[in-house]
Amino acid sequence: MVLRKSCVILRSRVGGNVDLTSSSVSTRVFNSTGVGARHFFLIIILPTTESWYSVTPEEIARRQAEVCSCHVIVDGYAGAGGNSIQFARTCGFVIGVDNCMDRLVNVLDSNARVYGVRSKIDTICGDLTLVLNALRMPPDDHSPIDTVFMSPPWGGPDYKARVLPPGAASWNKKRRKLWFESASDEIEQCYDLEGRIPFLAGAVTAARRLCPNRVAVYLPRHCALGQVLKLGWEGTADCTKRADVTIEDYWLRGRRLSICAYIGNFPKLSLADDSHQLEHYEAQQ
After folding, report:
1. What is the pTM of this model?
2. What's this protein's family per the entry (predicted)?
3. N or C, which terminus of the chain has less Cβ within 10 Å?
């Protein structure tokens, strides 16, 4: 992808400290087909750099929307609306929850209008755990919510400081030298879910109370496997009544980018054939 002069204007909308190199842009390009012309919509109209780094790449969001397709879905930590927009295409209705009203009104709403799915998305500003607990079960114990999806903030900009391995988008002579110089360093540590995202366990517990068999959580690639599987427990110490947890990997240009933990029953995960293996769900360059 070639960045032209218009990107200078887009950069100014989020601040000059956002890296608009081809590697970072290509993972976050949102394709939108308009009437009579196909154009690219970049999520660079965002007011903060936090949303720029936290938006889910479109190919990954599309895959997650296929797996989570249902009648009504809650998109926790909706942010810029990357997942909500894709859910609106595969689900009957989307409830986006975020704790920042400005982000919901000025970012998610605008992005959804570009894609023509604003009428299928409703938003709630508040803490996700409190919102899920407030959605009470009806007397017949049949929840009106079919699926709860969460994409909690991980601290995305922190990853930019690390030296990327061979096969990464920015693999060049300078980084090749840094890679070999740091090859003997300590290997990358596991991402501590309980320490870095302390509120996640409570949110998952509230979600499983509402939807016991359909909760999905989008996470960093190097999460501790035991902590991810523990999300399927009923509580923090009882593993006797645990749900199945299926972990799906997402790869970007030969590099493992992130994972998604599907807790419960997601039939479309088992429908993948040889032409739809996980490594094929890479963000388009």
Report:
1. 0.73
2. Belongs to the methyltransferase superfamily. Trimethylguanosine synthase family.
3. N
